[in-house]
Amino acid sequence: MATSYEDVYLRFLPKITSYEFLKLSDEVIFRDLNNYMKSAIVNFQYCSKLQDRNEDTETFKHDLNEEEIEILSSLMCVEYLTPKIITDEYLKDTLNSKDYTRYSQANHVKEIREIRDMFKQEADSKMIKYSFKMNKLDGLR
């Protein structure tokens, strides 16, 4: 059975907390999720299965294993966070409701960048392990 896009989305969504999705229609949410996933696919170069998909049924033609879905969802996090670093909306000062202290624009952007980089490093590490396993290089010792 082919892996649905929804399986990938369901792995991605718990990794982020975004109240902005509450304001959007389902159509817009799925469009955005699809765009994050397509960008993530481009960055997951070691998995040829991702290129073979059916856009009409929103499925991959091959079954993706848990590792492939996890890497794809981590890369989606990178795609989700990247525009937040450069968007003017996120460059505004934010207010911490707990102690009402103002965070600087630079610190807020720095925190988003650090989280994005963490997801990127995690995805890169998983892709390296995946590529070794798929090429059976780990058995050469």
What do these coordinates show?
This protein is mainly alpha-helical and 141 residues long. Helix content is 55%, strand content 6%. Strand 3 (94-95) and strand 4 form a beta hairpin. Helix 1 (5-12) crosses helix 3 (66-86). The longest helix is centred in the C-terminal third of the chain and has 31 residues, at 105-135.
The percentage of residues in β strands lies in 5-15%
**Unreliable stretches covering 5 or more consecutive residues:** 93-97
Number of helices: 4
Q: What is the count of β-strands? A: 4
How many strands, which pairing sense, and closed or not: the largest β-sheet? 2 strands, antiparallel
Read across the widest sheet, the strand sequence of neighbours is: 1-2
Q: What's the helix-strand series?
A: HHEEHEEH
Key traits:
about 140 residues, mainly alpha, two-stranded antiparallel ribbon, 4 helices, 4 strands
Q: How are the SSEs placed, and which strands pair?
A:
Elements: H1 5-12, H2 26-43, E1 53-54, E2 59-60, H3 66-86, E3 94-95, E4 102-103, H4 105-135
Antiparallel strand pairs: 1-2, 3-4
Helix pairs in contact: 1-3, 2-3, 3-4
Short description:
This protein is mainly alpha-helical and 141 residues long. It has helices at residues 5-12, 26-43, 66-86, 105-135; strands at 53-54, 59-60, 94-95, 102-103.
